[in-house]
Structure formats: structure tokens, C-alpha cells
Design brief:
By secondary structure, the protein is of the alpha/beta class. The chain folds into two domains: 2-215 and 385-441, FAD/NAD(P)-binding domain (3-Layer(bba) Sandwich), CATH 3.50.50.60; 220-381, Alpha-Beta Complex (Flavocytochrome C3, Chain A, domain 1). Helices cover 31% and strands 23% of the residues. It contains 13 helices and 19 strands. The chain starts with a strand and ends in a 6-residue tail after the last helix. The protein binds flavin-adenine dinucleotide.
């Protein structure tokens, strides 16, 4: 069996893995990046390429309930350094823009960035291998000293004082979603690369790591239902981000959450409903507002209602809510309770009364501009938030909350940064990657 000695071993070629690899390689260290897929990039290159996080610590805490305070603080404190690092690479980084009601960030050339990182690793004498994974980590005296790397040519023993797990969580593993997220988690669509199946977690646990608290959190979106095809092209066009402007009912006809908290929270709540389905109800006014939304990476607005209608999803349209519910009933939603819910909600909202149940902090309005719409929605999981227990220096911890020597985690493998909220997956990847790199190269804060 071949043996290799290097400075830094990285599993996963997405934002987290490639950032850490390039940062360490930029200091002249020899890095091996192991990527399971045929190409590097992971969910990162499928993303909108906006590096963003919360505008203030106060908003961060408010928007990431259940998240670990020290870990979210680490993302917030490292964010400017991550932006400076990104700019230092020479890839295109746009001016600041504002995201959702609580974030700020920067659009950047995400594909160019991942390729830049690869070149830095290779120019420093390191290697990026594709189509490879790890059988197990090498554990000696309670610490990790490398891994047995497997590719189509066989096994290689790789010795390294530091190993980073950055395999992107378990969004693409239905069994783990069912086990950790929700008993209906296995029915969710993977709105991510297909290779993030929990390997980082498996490898870490095998080396003595502990799981993070709050394993059920994830970042996802509400997706039109059903889908007759499903792949990266549909990840954004089938996303019904307008769920925050409508109301959602379950098959019993009841509202079940404050829809205005965010489409990512709506995706979590839908999974908890019967059959993991909801009907999103809204009117022509909402449709027109939403049809002005421009998809990241494009310059033309798209109308998600038309897409849903044309591509086989359940969409009901009517001049009255009664007409809409004639169709919604055929999807398995209780007609009378559903109709009562929308009519009561409209009456409350038009009276200017904020006493809805569940409560509504934003976007309280009556849906009274015909035609009226219902779209069936389901859950798409983009990135899981539970994972390996880590500290605010990206060190993986054991069940006694002590660092497992030599083992780091970043990105979606680093557990419980965001709880059931969300403040930027690329930011979690980049900031924890820079923290991991600091462990490897020492605390060199200069870019
Ligand atoms: C459509 C879409 C839009 C998005 N838009 C945004 C956005 O604008 N802003 C934002 O902040 N976030 C966005 N996200 C989320 C963001 O892309 C992810 O949170 C982020 O990419 C996670 O980074 P990561 O490095 O942890 O994982 P990834 O980028 O997924 O990288 C993980 C890599 O590990 C590899 N891997 C898995 N198992 C193994 C193994 N055993 N060995 C070796 N390699 C392995 C995978 O193949 C993958 O390449 C979006 C996601 C999607 C899908």
C-alpha cells in the first residue's frame, strides 16, 4: 500500500475544504484535497455565490435560534477576514448588498474562486484528487494522524498532523435525515450536491468525535410539488421563496407557523406536517411582486407560478377562494377547514388586527386581489446544520468536549452553528475554513 506524508489532509472540495486548503497552501505547506465527486466544487458551485451573514450580532442571535452562541460569534467575527481573503484572491467580488431582512453580503465568482484555490494548492506542491474518499481516519493515542484514502487505484495511507472534514453534511442521505432531522426527513428532496451523505460525520465519529447538539436544524427551501425532474437546474427555479408572503396550510387545513420568518424556516416546518406537504395560498398582488424577483446569477426576473404551472406542479387558480379549494381538495387537503382558515385570516388582516394564530411578525396582509392561487409545497434540504461537535476554533471535540488532536471540521460538517435558523452557508464554510487554517499554520491573521 502506498504511503504519503503531507502537512494537511482535507476531505471535501467545496467552500470550506478549498478555502482551508488554499489558505494553508499559500503559506507553503503541502496539502492533499480528497474529493469524492468527479469534480471539485460541491454545493458551493451550485450556489448563488453570495457570501453573506447577519448584519449585527443581535440579528444573528435572533435569526439562528438553537445555534451555538460561540460558533455564531466566530462566524460573525471572522466574516470581514473572509471577505478580505476573497478579495485578495483576485476573483470578482461585487459591492455589498443586503440579503433577506437581516443580512449583508457580497456576490462573487464562485466557480473562479474554487479554481483559484485548486491552483494555489497545486502550485505549492499539493494535490487535489477526485473520485476518492476515506475508508477511516488513522487514530493514534486518541489523536488523528491522517487517513486511509481510497480511490479506484486502491488504498493510500496518508500521514498528516492535521485533517479537515469538510464533506458538506448529510443533505443527500435520506436515512440520516430521517434519523436526525425528522421522521419524515427521508421524503425531503436533496437541494444540494448528491455526494454530501454524512461521510465527515461517520469518519469523525469513528475517531472519537461527538455529535453536536440540535441535530435537526437545516437550511432548505420550499419546493413546488410534485417535481417531474429534479437537479441543479431546478434548485432555484422550483424554489417557492414567495412562501413568506403567503400563508401555508397543512392537509388538515390549518396554518402551522409564522410564514414570514423565512422560506428556510418554512421548509423545516413543512417536514413536520402530515405527508410533509403544505399548500401555499396567495393572491395576484403577491404573484406580481414575486414575479419581479431576479434569480442570482441572471439578470431577468422569473415568474415561479408560471414555472410551477408549466412543469407539472400542483397549482390552483380561481376568482374566489371557494374555486381555488375545489382543486386543492383533490390534492388531499381538507376543504372546509382550509377555506375557513384563509377567510378568517383575511378578515383579521383587513381589520388591521395582528392577533393571528400562529402569529405573524411581517407581511400581514389580506389576500383580496383576484385571481387567487394555491401551490403545493414540499421540503428541499440544502445543507444540514447538525454535525460534528466543534469549538470556535474549528477543532472537533469528543464527548468530554475536549479537542480530538489533529482533527478539524468546517462548513456543513461543523455542527450547530445556525440551529434552526440560517445566516449563510458559504460564510460558515469560509470562516470556519480560515479558523481551521489558523490551527494548521499558527495564528497568522494577515491575508
Ligand atoms: C442552489 C443553491 C444556492 C445556494 N446559494 C447560496 C448563497 O447564495 N449563499 C450561501 O451562503 N449559501 C448558498 N447555498 C448553500 C451553500 O452552497 C452551502 O451551504 C455550502 O456550499 C456548503 O459548503 P461546504 O464546503 O460545507 O459543502 P460543499 O460545497 O457541498 O462541499 C462538500 C464537498 O465534499 C465532497 N464530499 C462528500 N463526501 C466526501 C468524502 N467522503 N470524501 C471527500 N469528499 C467528499 C462533496 O462531493 C462536495 O464536493 C446555496 C446552495 C444551493 C444548492
Amino acid at each position: 500500500m502506498d504511503t504519503l506524508n503531507i502537512d494537511f489532509l482535507v476531505f471535501g472540495g467545496g467552500m470550506a475544504g478549498m478555502t482551508a486548503a488554499a489558505k494553508v497552501a499559500s503559506k507553503g505547506r503541502i496539502v492533499l484535497v480528497v474529493e469524492k465527486a468527479a469534480e471539485i466544487g460541491g454545493s458551493t458551485v451550485l450556489s448563488g455565490g453570495k457570501l453573506w451573514t447577519a448584519k449585527s450580532m443581535e440579528l444573528f442571535e435572533q435569526e439562528t435560534p438553537g445555534g451555538d452562541p460561540a460558533l455564531r460569534r466566530a462566524v460573525f467575527d471572522m466574516f470581514d477576514e473572509a471577505v478580505a481573503w476573497l478579495r485578495s484572491t483576485g476573483v470578482t467580488v461585487a459591492d455589498v448588498t443586503y440579503h433577506l431582512h437581516y443580512g449583508k453580503g457580497y456576490d462573487f465568482d464562485v466557480v473562479g474562486y474554487i479554481d483559484y484555490c485548486r491552483r494555489v494548492v497545486e502550485q505549492a506542491g499539493g494535490t487535489v484528487i477526485r473520485g476518492a474518499t476515506a475508508d477511516r481516519l488513522i487514530v493514534r493515542d486518541g489523536g488523528v494522524e491522517g487517513a486511509v484514502v481510497v480511490d479506484r487505484d486502491g488504498e493510500t495511507i496518508v500521514h498528516a498532523p492535521w485533517t479537515l472534514l469538510a464533506t458538506g453534511g448529510f443533505s443527500a442521505n435520506p436515512q440520516l435525515l430521517e434519523c436526525f432531522v425528522h421522521r419524515r426527513g427521508g421524503s425531503a428532496l436533496a437541494r444540494s450536491n448528491p455526494h454530501s451523505t454524512g461521510d465527515g460525520m461517520r469518519l469523525g465519529l469513528g475517531a472519537g468525535a461527538a455529535l453536536s447538539p440540535f441535530m435537526k436544524g437545516f437550511y432548505g427551501h420550499v419546493i413546488q410539488s410534485p417535481v417531474n425532474q429534479w437537479g441543479p437546474r431546478e434548485f432555484r427555479t422550483y424554489t417557492q421563496g414567495g412562501s413568506i408572503k403567503g400563508i401555508m396550510i397543512n392537509q388538515q387545513g390549518a396554518r402551522f407557523c409564522d410564514e414570514s420568518l423565512g422560506d428556510h424556516q418554512n421548509a423545516q416546518r413543512i417536514l413536520e406536517q402530515p405527508q410533509a406537504r403544505a399548500a401555499i395560498l396567495f393572491d395576484e398582488a403577491v404573484r406580481r411582486e414575486e414575479a419581479r424577483t431576479i434569480l442570482a446569477g441572471t439578470d431577468t426576473p422569473i415568474d415561479k407560478v408560471s414555472i410551477a404551472m408549466n412543469e407539472g406542479a400542483r397549482v390552483a387558480v380561481g376568482d374566489t377562494w371557494e374555486q381555488v379549494f375545489e382543486t386543492v381538495e383533490t390534492w388531499g387537503f381538507a376543504r372546509e377547514p382550509g377555506l375557513a382558515t384563509i377567510l378568517a385570516y383575511n378578515a383579521t388582516a383587513s381589520a388591521g388586527n395582528r392577533q393571528t394564530h400562529p402569529s405573524r411578525v411581517r407581511e400581514l396582509r389580506a389576500y383580496d386581489t383576484p385571481p387567487f392561487y394555491a401551490i403545493e409545497g414540499q421540503t428541499g434540504v440544502t445543507a444540514t446544520h447538525g454535525g460534528l461537535r466543534v469549538d470556535a476554533q474549528a477543532r472537533v471535540l469528543n464527548s468530554g468536549s475536549q479537542p480530538v488532536r489533529g482533527l478539524l471540521a468546517a462548513g456543513a460538517d461543523a455542527g450547530n452553528i445556525y440551529g434552526e435558523g440560517y445566516a449563510g452557508g458559504l460564510a460558515a464554510g469560509a470562516t470556519f475554513a480560515l479558523l481551521a487554517a489558523q490551527q494548521v499554520i499558527g495564528d497568522e491573521r494577515t491575508i
